[in-house]
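Re: the request from the purification team.
They wanted to know what the chain is likely to look like in 3D before they choose a buffer screen. I agreed to run a prediction and write the result into the notebook, where they can find it.
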Amino acid sequence: MRKKIARETGVLPLWLLSKGATLLEPIVSLRFIKYCVVGCSGVVVNMGSLYVLTHASVQTNLASLIAIEVSIITNFIANHFWTFKAGGTKKTNTGVMLMRFHLTSAVGATIQFLVFVTMNMVWFLMLYNSAARLAYHAHVGSWWIRWFWWPFVAPPDVGGLVYSSQFIGIGVATLCNYLMNYYWTWSAHRR
C-alpha cells in the first residue's frame, strides 16, 4: 500500500518521511538555536584563525585545518556548559564527552574541509580562463592526481574567495555535527 501511494503521488513513502522527521526533530528546538549561537562564535574563531594564519604565511590548507581545530575546542567548551548544560541527571566524564565531541567534529571537519577544497576549485574553474587552468595543472600527470590530489597539496590561489569556501563548508557541516552531538555526545544529558 505504501509503495502504491508513493508511486501515485510521486513523493517519498510516508513512512520514510516520518522516520526522517523523527530524526530531524531536535533541529526545531531552543537547544538547536543555542547550538547555532555557539556555532556562530565558532565561525568567528574559525575565520579569525584562518585570517591570522594565512597572513602569517601559513599554507592555505594547513591554515584551514588549524582554524577548524581551534574552533572545535572553543565550541566544545561553550556547548558543554551552555547548550547541553552538562549538569544533567546522568553524569558523563568530561574527557569522554570531549573525545566524542572531537570524533563528531572530525566528521564535520572532514566534510567542511572537503567542501572548502572543492569550492576553491569551483571558484578557480569559474573565474580563471583556460590558460590559467592549464598553467595550474602543467606539472601534474594523471587525471586522478590533477583533480583529486593536486587541489589538496597545491591549492589554487582564489584570493578572498577562500573565506567564502570556508563559510560554505561550515554551513554544510553544521547540521551533521548537531545531530551527532545531540544523539551521541550529550545523549545522557537530554533525558
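For the purification team: The chain has one domain: 26-189.
Please add any questions underneath this entry.
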